[in-house]
Amino acid sequence: MSTRQDVGLRSFSKLFIGGRWVDPVSEETLSVVSPSSEEVIATVPSASPADVDAAVAAARRAFDDGPWPRMSAAERAGYLSRIRDEVAARVEDMEHAFSAEVGAPAGVSKAFHQNALAAWDDAITVHQRAAFEEKRSWGDGEGVLVREPVGVVAAIIPWNGPVAQASMKYAPALAAGCTVVLKPSPEAPLSTLILAEAIEAAGLPEGVVSMVPAGREVGEHLVRHPDVDKVSFTGSTAAGKRIMSICGERIARVSLELGGKSAAIVADDVPVGDVVPSLVQAGVINSGQVCAALTRVLVPRHRQQEFAEAIAGEMESYSVGSPFEEGTDLGPLVSEQQRERVESYVRLGVEEGARLITGGARPEGLERGWYVAPTLFADVRNDMRIAREEIFGPVMCLIPFDGIDEAVAIANDSDYGLSGAVYAEDTALAERVARQVRTGQICINGWAMRIDQPFGGYKQSGLGREGNLEGLGAFLEYKLIQHS
């Protein structure tokens, strides 16, 4: 049975628009449903198009006439430092809300919120590394290249890591001097609204920051808004294609951090016991609801059964249950719809001829909640849909190869290119393979998501990067002032 620590969570009745809590235009609300108990645990206002218009208007005024973009980068960093301190003071509340609304176990929630703090830490110091003005000269003249804030930013985030995702957008955009309207997902607005309280406490100028939780239609209204200069979106590739097409209608700037089907290449010289714990953790963390998860595991063909047995054993040792129970490794999927999606892919994998090694079913003893046991397929071909499409659940595919060059070819034979890993005792081999795989980040003998370094993907995994100077650059325009 689930340990009920998702009751008594605080609901919200107001929207955060222009740095103030205001009454929403409509009485519509979003019900936050616990994925472990299947019960409504809180409600928040559902922003309407009129609320979005008010937020964008406040951001427009603040950018065009307010002090924020006209401050020095060091002055803005002082505000960001205060936000970081306010976030740190509320991080336990955010972690608890995240576990309740998404189902992430305590350890996962803590890691996500440490990433949020890392994003603010990065933005606080980025002005010390960035050149906002740079002298340029050419044959018969000289000038200054000025990097200016892009303007009003619409930021749209998913439910699988809301405070971390929001921080990855708010922090560099604010450091650049932009004003920001952020739309959280309807599934997970609670932890981000606590973030709004932290931002309010930091005392930014009026209009600089807004937060408008809502569904897809209102998000599209925000993307289409003529006063929005830049859209920064994190979510599915399908939604990213839609947003990119809308931005293309008016040549709005856009950054996209989208899906993944990342590959781990395991060389023949690696002892199975040295890599399996890392592989499984990277494949099913947050119940596989991570864009950078290592869901394709490429192993030498003659060792496939060895790895299948070891990975299955590791998966079966995982405790699946309430995110509030001590020792839980995997919580539920975020929604009934998401569980149905994952289960449909499990059925598809069997139909395609893959060999189901473990999992694929709802764990025994968990009658309520949207749980799926960690799942492993072997004998997977890279042309199978379970190997090509992002499942976003705790499902991993073992794909055998006959040589390391074939492994690289399989890894690159994907519409995606977000993350990846190479496991090899031969470090020169690992380095060579890492350089050949077309992906935004790749780890050697481990796995991690570095959000304080450039994070983003090749191909249909997105456009642009988040984190560090590259993340700051996504919110800047370039102006050349020529001196004659």
List keywords for this structure.
aldehyde dehydrogenase (NAD(+)), Aldehyde Dehydrogenase, Chain A, domain 2, Ald_DH/histidinol_DH, oxidoreductase, 2 domains, 484 residues, EC 1.2.1.3, seven-stranded mixed β-sheet, Aldehyde Dehydrogenase, Chain A, domain 1
What does this entry look like structurally?
Belongs to the aldehyde dehydrogenase family. It catalyses: an aldehyde + NAD(+) + H2O = a carboxylate + NADH + 2 H(+). The mean pLDDT is 96. The protein has a seven-stranded mixed β-sheet, with helices on both faces. Strands 9-8-7-10-11-21 form a six-stranded mixed β-sheet, with helices on both faces. Helix content is 40%, strand content 21%. With 484 residues, it is α/β, with parallel strands linked by helices. The chain has two domains: 15-258 and 461-483, Aldehyde Dehydrogenase, Chain A, domain 1 (3-Layer(aba) Sandwich), CATH 3.40.605; 262-451, Aldehyde Dehydrogenase, Chain A, domain 2.
